[in-house]
Every structure is written in C-alpha cells, then in structure tokens.
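Hi again,

Forgot to attach this to my earlier email, sorry! This is the prediction with adenosine-5'-diphosphate bound. I've pasted everything inline since the attachment limit keeps bouncing my files.
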Amino acid sequence: MARLFAEYGRPEWHLLAVALMTSLFGRTVALVPPLVLGVAIDAVFVGDAPYTLPLVPVEYLPETRAEGLWFSAVLVVGALLLAVLLTWAQGVCFSLFSNRVQHRVRVDAYEAMQGLDMAFFDDKQTGQVMSILNNDVRNLKSFLNGTVGGAVQLVVTVTAIAWLLFYLNAQLALVTLVAVPLLGIFTVWFMRTVRPLYRALRASVGDLNTRIENNLDGIEVIKTSATEPFETARVDDASWTTYLKTWAVVKLEYLYQPGMELMAGIAFAFTFVVGGLWLVAGPPGPFSGTLLVGEFVTFLFMTQRFVDPLAGAGRIVNSYENARASAERIFELADRPVVVRDADDPVPLPRSGVRGRIEYDDVTFGYRPDDPVVSNVSFVVDPGETVAFVGPTGAGKSTLAKLLLRLYDVDERRASARRARSDDVDRGSVSVDGVDVRDLALSDLRRAVGYVGQDVYLFDGTVRENLRYGAFDATDAEMVAAAKAAEAHAFVTALPDGYDTRIGERGVKLSGGQRQRLSIARAMLQDPAILVLDEATSAVDTETELYIQRALDALTDGRTTVVIAHRLSTIRDADVILVLDEGRVVERGTHAELVDAEGLYAALWGIQAGDTDDLPSELVSRLSRVSTAD
Ligand code: ADP
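Structure tokens for the complex follow:
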C-alpha cells in the first residue's frame, strides 16, 4: 500500500493534499456548533457562567446575554455553511484523485501484463488477469475514494476531540478514553485474522472469472457436446467457492464492526452514568471539582462524536485489508520476472535494409526444464531463400519458428542452473543477419520478421484498420496495392462498405480463405524482410487455395521465408527442407534429393500421394499423425 501511494499517489499529490486539508478543516468546523451550543446554554440561557471559547481571545467574545445569543447563532450558521462547502470540495478532490490513480494503475498493470512471457499466457490465466485489471483495480479506487479520507478524518477527529474532552473535563475524559486501547487490540486481532481470508477471496474471484471466460471461448464445443449442465455445475462450483470465501470474510466483519460499535457505545454509556451521578450527587469516587449542566451536555455531544468514528474504524480497517489484497495481486502481476525482453544494450537493426539471413546454431529448447522439444538444430537460410519444416505433429516445427520470433527464448540462464544435472539443456542461438536475436530490441526484430499464422485474428474494426494494423502509416494506395497482391481487393470491394466494412467480433463474418488473404495483405503492408508462414491445415476449396497460393507467392517473393509445412505439395520449390522428428533434424535437402533418399520424407510424400502400400504399418500409423489436408 505504501508503494501504491509512492508510485501512483505522488503525481496526484496536490489533489490528495487539497482533499485532506478540506476534509480536516471540514471536520474541525463541524465541531463548532455543539461547542457553541454548550457554551450558550451556560452563558446565555442559564446565565451562570461567562462566555468562553477555546482559542478565541476574550475581547472578541460577547458580553451581554443578547449579544451572546446572536453571536452563537451566527457562529453556528456560518460553521454549517462552511462545512457544506468543504464537504463538496473534499468529495470532488477525492474522486479526482482516486479515479486518476485507478486509471494509471490499470494502464500500467495492462502494460506489464502485455509484456509478460508467452509461458504466462500458455497457462490460460486470462480470467485472473481480467479480474486483476477490473475488480482489483476498482477495489483500490474505492479504498482511495472512500476510505483514505475517512481514515485521516478519523485520526484527526479523534485526536482533536480527545484534546477537547480533556480541555472540558480531564477526569471525565479519562472515563471515555478507557475504550481506546481495547478497540486497538480488537482491531489488530481483526486485521491479522481477515488478511488471509481476503487474499483467498480475491483469488477465488479470479478463478470464477477464468471459468466463465473459458466457457465463453469454448461455447461452440459446449453446445455441440451438449455439456451445458456440466458447465453450469462447474460455474456453480466456482461461484459457490467465491460465496464461501466471501462469507468467511463477512462473518468476521459482522463480528468486528458491531463489536467496535458495542465497545464505543459502552464507553459512551459509562461517561453518561459517571457524569450524571456527578451532576446529581456530586463528584463520585475518586473524582473531584464541579460539573455544570451545559458543560456536561457539550461533553456528551463530543463523546458521541468521539465514539462514532471509532465505531466506524471497523469499516476503514476492513476496506484497507480488502484493498491490500488487491494491491498485492496488482503488483505481483507487474513484478513478474520476464525472460523475453529487450537486451540491456540492444544491437540496432536497420529499419530497412535487413538482409534476412537466418542462422540456427545448435539450438536445444524445451518449454519445461529437462524436457527438450527441439534438440541440436542447426541450419542457415540465406537472404531471399525459403526453408520448410516438415514432420509429424508435435515434432517441434512451430516451436522452432517461435524461437525466431522470440515468442520464447533459448534461456541459457535456466540452462546453467541445470547444467550440473543434465547435459540436454537449453543452449545454442538463433541469429538474424549475424546478430543473436536476444541481442536485438524486440520491436526491431518483430519489424524484420513477419508472421502469417493458421488462426487469423481480426480485430473488431474496419477492413482498413485491420489491414493497417502494425503498419499504421501506410497510405491508402499502398494498402490497396497490398490487398490486390494478396488477392483480397476483389472481395473487399464487394463488401457492403468496401474497405470501411466493419469486420471482427461485432462485424461482418468472413470465410477462412478471406481472412487468410487479409492476413497475407497485412503482412505485405508491414513488408518484413523475413516471413514466418504457418500453413493452414484446414482444407479450402481448390479455387480459394489457388488464390491463397498466388497471394503467398507474391508475399514470399524476395523475402527469406520459413514455412511450417503441412502440405508437402506447397514446398516443392523450397531451397531447403528440414525433416523433423521428435525435435531432431532427421533429414535435410531439396524435395528431389529427399524423395530420392527414400527416408522419412519420401514416406510422408508417399502418404500424401495416397501411396502407403509398401510401408510398414507401424510407420504409417506414426506418420499419419502428420496433419495433412490432401
Ligand atoms: P509441431 O509444430 O511440429 O506440431 P510443436 O512445436 O507445436 O510441434 O510442439 C512440439 C512439442 O512441444 C509438442 O509435444 C507440444 O506438446 C509441446 N508444446 C508446444 N507448445 C507448447 C507450450 N506452449 N507449452 C508446453 N509445451 C508445448
């Protein structure tokens, strides 16, 4: 919480300062009416005491009872008006402060989340992340808006009134203040007990969000599998867990808050009884001196104003603990260590003029320690050439390509920690134009390496916005040229609003082939020197395939291309084909060389051509794991 104020409160300190000042001043002004009332009873109505007020010099005070009446009325009304004004100013400032901090915290947390490693997103924590960015950030805001002011007011009011109580009658004040240490002990107990419960509650809200998000993503599967009752039961479970965790907190809250009120009430009653006895039968027990009726009335008013905030301290402490659990989650997200990040002193890669030479040097990599997915892979692709990865599903083709895009890093630090135990660890390097990709700035690398994947993601927006995504300064003419080259122009102009047609989540739905051509046009506009192409596995009709193939030919022309191939027919012209099996390169060469070699590639080629008669059945069943469409 200290960090929250230091990092995010500081830029808005002026708002917080004004808010606190007005709130304190407002509290002080609110004390004037009861104080004046007590004095007026004794000095004006009963008339048996002089008109005195703390901090006000005698020469300013009224002398006659009539003057005293008017003086009191003006003071009371003036104080009320001022209090209204101050309350307004305080509310506005606290709202501005808390909403601005909320905004900054949310954007920073989002930015930190976006920079996290792919491994974080593989764990599918989207629901937790959403709940941090939504619920937890909002939690902080309500704490900053409602509670911070309350806490400061509490401290100041209680201190000021304690001082006043002592000023009015020190002996009676001791009676009232006996409650304070008891309330303190009770509060510390509550904070310690509720803290882990709040943590558990915030985590369970995240789990519930994860469940629901997951189901929304998979709604098609749920419907087609008729598993609605099963999923309802799972959401029921997650929601019930949240209910139980909430209830655990609420049970404690409802012990604590009324407990505080009860203790404060007892302190008030105690003061009332002791003061009442004093008035009726003279100073009781160890007490001495006189007590006037007006003095006692003021004292009781003040005692009320003393115990009320103390009773309300429960809410403040509760809200603090809730916000604390949220702040922990926000900063935990922001502080996660990131493996894939910019080098400290990145080697610059020219914006244009990247030649596009790729080299993999003895690359061994796994997603989990000691579980390599690709092993000892080495190859070189010269500028403008095409390399194709083929092999059974799970052989490591996509993994190899992800290393070039730095979606993952060969993490030698992780390797050196394990080197003592195993030989088969993360090592080797991937380089572009002779520079290790880990030594480049991520933005440079990703400008140089384009990616066209199987799942084409279209953002909610127009065709134009989607095409220019990542190439925001491209002109309309460039965009249309790219769309034409990608065989997309014709179908785009046939859409209701042409390039301004809304597509994506809430817009016109496009076919798989159309989406693919848009994604090819997008890559063309970005104009990277190197292209990673994850071929679509899904079958499209022959005509569409022809379009896509022509679009791809236009795209790859003159660029270094890495193809993750599913259809061998499309990579016959590749300069080099790497055949992968269980993460190792088992064969390499051109199509003709590999067919002649009569190894794994020749077998795959045979299967895709429908010719499996001469192959051993074990090999056929293993190779049929290859995702093919033909
Ligand atoms: P291919 O592209 O040849 O089908 P992949 O590179 O996708 O193969 O996968 C290689 C192996 O790595 C598979 O066993 C797969 O289960 C595993 N794998 C792929 N992605 C991940 C990931 N994000 N986390 C953990 N394991 C993964």
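The pocket of adenosine-5'-diphosphate is lined by residues 122, 367, 373, 391, 393-399 (CB under 6 Å). Residues 98 and 142 are 7 Å apart (CA to CA).

That should be everything now.

G.
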